[in-house]
């Protein structure tokens, strides 16, 4: 049913930086080394799913390991994890666990962050090639060059960055606290925000601060267009819209919201953890979810009586999906692949992460 209060299109146009994003350097995960290793393993290909789960349950106890999983992980991995959360919650969970072994089911930069926060623990990732297209848009060398051009600038790095990039930053932030982190920086300071330009534009809009943007993007979230949002909202006129701030259309939606083209009471920009909190307390029955589709499993578990509709059902992060049950089993069995950040880099990166944790 068509709701006459919703527009056919968003008329507000947002001026995006004209330079195109840097080289994507998007890593391929078609046939990773870990995938080849499980296929060639003398035991793993012969195990059924329930046998793999049984062995994982046994090994996690024997190793005294905690399994942390991001909200975009495959349903089976989320169901096995001790804790499922967003980037910030996973770092906080890693920092407070007593377990000597952390198996990190997420992408590599997240496991690196856990290792930086817990240098005395063994941090494992079942597939170290689980990269991130956004993190790979910026190198430490490029940050140094950028800082040289803005010597008084304060560098705010989204956690979706490699450890050596974090080491060049003054602050880290996640999608759930980027606005608060920028607000905590003295007004007169120039801000260099990296690597996600859409999150950076959102932060600029919410704080009113002048922010220099690194022109990086996540290939999964950049694909969300204002047309997708409008179409979904017209099909489900009573639904709440949950938008991740990495989405390519987030700035246009924020401006449309301010202009009254999108309903204020039903449009929400949230990190993946914020989406979970939202559906727990919202009385609305239908939610349109504009982020990676792994999120739907998590939301359905949190609120089984509600309906969740993906705004883009092909929004799949192949990096998150490289973590599979056989690889998780192999990780616990063979204690692979350990993620360790060289101390000199870890110390500098920890400073930026700690500054973020002080703000939130
Ligand atoms: P969250 O911190 O919201 O979980 O986001 C992480 C991420 O990689 C989004 O693509
Ligand atoms: Fe990186 Fe995008 Fe995947 Fe998140 S969804 S891990 S930002 S590639």
Report on this model:
This protein has helices at 33-40, 49-62, 75-80, 87-96, 108-117, 140-149, 163-166, 178-183, 197-207, 226-235, 250-258, 272-281, 294-302, 325-334, 343-359; strands at residues 65-70, 83-85, 101-105, 122-124, 154-158, 171-173, 191-194, 211-213, 240-243, 267-269, 286-290, 307-310. The protein has 360 residues and is an alpha/beta fold. It has 3 domains: 18-23 and 134-214, Rossmann fold; 33-132 and 320-347, NadA-like (Rossmann fold, 3-Layer(aba) Sandwich), CATH 3.40.50.10800; 222-310, Rossmann fold, CATH 3.40.50.10800. The strands form 3 sheets. It has a 4-stranded parallel sheet, with helices on both faces. The protein has a 4-stranded parallel sheet with strand order 6-5-7-8. The chain has a 4-stranded parallel sheet with strand order 10-9-11-12, sandwiched between helices. Helix 2 (49-62) runs parallel beside helix 14 (325-334) and helix 4 packs parallel to helix 5 (108-117). The mean pLDDT is 92. Bound molecules: 1,3-dihydroxyacetonephosphate and iron/sulfur cluster. The site of 1,3-dihydroxyacetonephosphate (13P) has 10 residues, from loops.
Keywords for this structure?
360 residues, alpha/beta, Rossmann fold, 13% strand, binds 1,3-dihydroxyacetonephosphate, binds iron/sulfur cluster
The count of β-strands is: 12
Strand order of the largest sheet: 2-1-3-4
The name of the CATH architecture of the largest domain is: 3-Layer(aba) Sandwich
Q: Helicity, in percent? A: 40-55%
Largest sheet: 4 strands, parallel
Query: How would you sum up the global shape?
Result: globular
> What ligands are attached or bound here?
1,3-dihydroxyacetonephosphate, iron/sulfur cluster
- Give me the secondary-structure category: alpha/beta
Spell the H/E element sequence: HHEHEHEHEHEHEHEHEHEHEHEHEHH
CATH domain fold name of the largest domain? Rossmann fold
Low-confidence stretches: none
Question: Radius of gyration, Cα only, in angstroms?
Answer: 20 Å
């Amino acid at each position: 049913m068509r709701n006459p209060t919703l527009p056919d299109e968003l008329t507000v146009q947002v001026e995006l930086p004209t330079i195109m994003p840097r080289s994507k350097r998007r890593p391929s995960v078609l046939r990773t080394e870990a995938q080849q290793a499980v296929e060639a393993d003398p035991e793993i290909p012969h195990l059924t799913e329930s046998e793999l789960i049984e062995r994982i349950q046994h090994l996690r106890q024997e190793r005294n390991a905690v399994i942390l999983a991001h909200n975009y992980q495959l349903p089976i991995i989320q169901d096995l994890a001790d804790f499922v959360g967003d980037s910030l919650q996973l770092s906080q969970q890693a920092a407070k666990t007593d377990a000597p072994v952390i198996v990190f089911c997420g992408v590599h930069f997240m496991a690196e962050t856990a290792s930086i926060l817990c240098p005395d623990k063994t941090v494992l990732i079942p597939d170290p090639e689980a990269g991130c297209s956004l993190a790979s848009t910026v190198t430490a060398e490029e940050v140094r060059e950028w800082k040289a051009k803005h010597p008084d600038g304060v560098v705010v790095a989204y956690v979706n960055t490699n450890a050596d990039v974090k080491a060049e930053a003054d602050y880290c932030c996640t999608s759930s606290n980027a606005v608060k982190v920028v607000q905590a920086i003295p007004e007169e300071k120039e801000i260099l925000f990296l690597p996600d330009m859409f999150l950076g534009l959102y932060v600029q809009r919410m704080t009113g601060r002048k922010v220099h943007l690194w022109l990086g993007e996540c290939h999964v979230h950049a694909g969300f267009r204002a047309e997708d949002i409008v179409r979904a909202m017209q099909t489900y006129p009573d639904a709440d819209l949950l938008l991740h701030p990495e989405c390519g259309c987030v700035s246009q939606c924020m401006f449309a919201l301010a202009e009254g083209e999108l309903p204020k009471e039903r449009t929400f920009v949230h990190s993946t953890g914020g989406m979970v909190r939202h559906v727990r307390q919202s009385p609305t029955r239908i939610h349109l979810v504009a982020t990676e589709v792994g999120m739907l499993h998590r939301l359905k578990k949190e609120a089984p009586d509600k309906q969740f509709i993906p705004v883009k059902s092909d929004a799949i992060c192949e990096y998150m999906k490289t973590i599979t049950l056989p690889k998780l089993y192999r990780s616990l069995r063979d204690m692979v692949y350990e993620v360790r950040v060289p101390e000199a880099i870890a110390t500098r990166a920890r400073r930026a992460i700690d500054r973020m944790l002080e703000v939130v």
